[in-house]
Amino acid sequence: MKNLVFPIISALLLMGGISVFTSCDNASKTPMKAKLIPLEDFFKNPEKAGYQISPDGNYYSYLAPYESRLNVFVQERGKEESKRLTSETDRDIAGYFWPNNEQILYLKDTGGDENYKLYGVNIDGTNEKCFTDFDGVRTQIIDDLPDIEDEVIIGLNKRDATVFDPYRLNLKTGEMEMLAENPGTVQSWIFDHDGKLRIALSMDGVNTSIMYRETEKDEWKVVLTTNFKDEMSPYFFTFDNKNVIGTSNLGRDKSAIVEFDIANGKEIKVLYENPDYDVSGVFYSKKRKVLTSASYNSWKRERYFFDDETKQIFERLNKDLGNYELGISGSNKNEDVFIVRTYSDRSLGAYYIYDKNADKIEKIADVSPWIDENEMASMTPISYTSRDGLTIPGYLTLPKGYTMETAKDLPVVINPHGGPWYRDSWGFNPEIQFLANRGYAVLQMNFRGSTGYGKKFWEASFKKWGREMQDDITDGTKWLIEKGIADPEKIAIYGGSYGGYATLMGLVKEPELYAAGVDYVGVSNMFTFMKTIPPYWKPFLDMMYEMAGNPKEDSLMLREVSPVFHVDKITAPLFIAQGANDPRVNKDESDQMIEAMKARGIDVEYMVKDNEGHGFRNEENRFDFYRAMEKFLNKHMGMEPTK
After folding, report:
1. Is the pLDDT of residue 26 over 50?
2. Catalytic choice (450, 472, 582, 636)
3. By the number of CB atoms within 10 A of the CB, which of 218, 259, 508, 535 ranks highest?
4. Can you list the domains of the chain with their CATH numbers?
């Protein structure tokens, strides 16, 4: 099954081994500054990325820039020349995959509206077509049906903008057959290994029901209903198509990998659980019909192996590539040729092909060869205690040359993540590296509600926007001051999406703490935000009301935590950036804030990009934004302008 794009409610407002490097011989010496790296090197499109391999293993494909937009290229293994299959110049390809050996399918929206259309093109460049050319309609990829070469299952909200119906799409003829009419509550559909529709997950707002049928001729029956706080998420059927494998936190705090008797709605056994973290991924070999591994995030990604053969493959890869973290991003149908991606906190890494039979690892491309990892900063896991006793994990990135022991009175950027029901993870982040290269320490915190730490930690965020969630961010800032790492006069706060909201609330609640703020597509008014969400999020509104607040029942609280009503408390200068076509955080959220700030005579800068949505995808717009942000921070943090 492919899941190329599309947020879920747990990441509502999302943008979408540590090696401590130091240039000091000892703490008494002044740290050597990193070489100043051009801004464009951090934010330009990768040279080559998104590698995949054809089912027969004879070709691989990748995304690379064409006229500054990421397009799909294909190359035969063992040959030097490649062929560009797409020629998009207005918007990057959002995602793509191989449905068979002859064809590539890809998704693209218009101007950031997230109404993705599905396109197809043969690998010789012929027969390019749009399969879902419907205005105002969003296409989902539900199942790529790897054993049925000329068909895929897609979801469309064409009949009803608020829900998605599943369709079987014939890639030869373009014909679509609706497989079920969504009654208005189904949020996802699951097919068995024979491509038969057998499970539907239905939501009434706050309760989720698993609906099941033995065959496609049978009537649906509800086998389990739970409150949204309790999760049983089927991922795929067992290989006999009887039970399902998925994640569950029923009767436990941390999500575990379980086998589930789907016909009777009962958990059979726990396959793997971790005492400290939610287990969120499980993988299998379609050819050998065995579970291979499970994954979870502690301070970085970790794996548990069910299968010795898979474990041996990773051990073999680590033998040659073990200086980096690595993942297998794809394989051929015979599962003997693999695409391998390496990465670290200081490198976007490279792609390799591993030929298992030949026991050969071949490097095919660096993602961003212009990035010198020796000039990058290390991302160190940290934790601190909130004012009410919660342990808040996070990451601290210091400018090159500094350690936790030598870092004193540094300018700091506090960077809360989006979501908010998401989390920051260890790895290369161009924003963080850019800020570190400019001399800033950067603190990222997984405040309460961040995912991966169990049900209790998640629920601690309910109706806490701008309150205890914001306090966690403030407590992290003060922790840096107490450690002596932060110069208390030079602390800025910057975030995107929910992080943009947290930036605004930080300036409202702590006017003396932050010297400046940068809000990137952030919410300013909880009432208007909930009225302007995309129509296909409306089935989640009742759940959103319980998690963030009900506009009627909690109106006083929501007004209290809506920054637009409290601009009189903001004294720090503010920079706001917004995409005009943003479907998640409507442009009016930023317009309101600008109007209110200007009415108070407060210093505010505003950047709007007419061809963008929730975050800037187009390369030239990213350059403009980060260039303006750097200038803004330098001005208000007392930093010297970049030369």
Report:
1. no
2. 582
3. 508
4. 376-637 (3.40.50.1820)
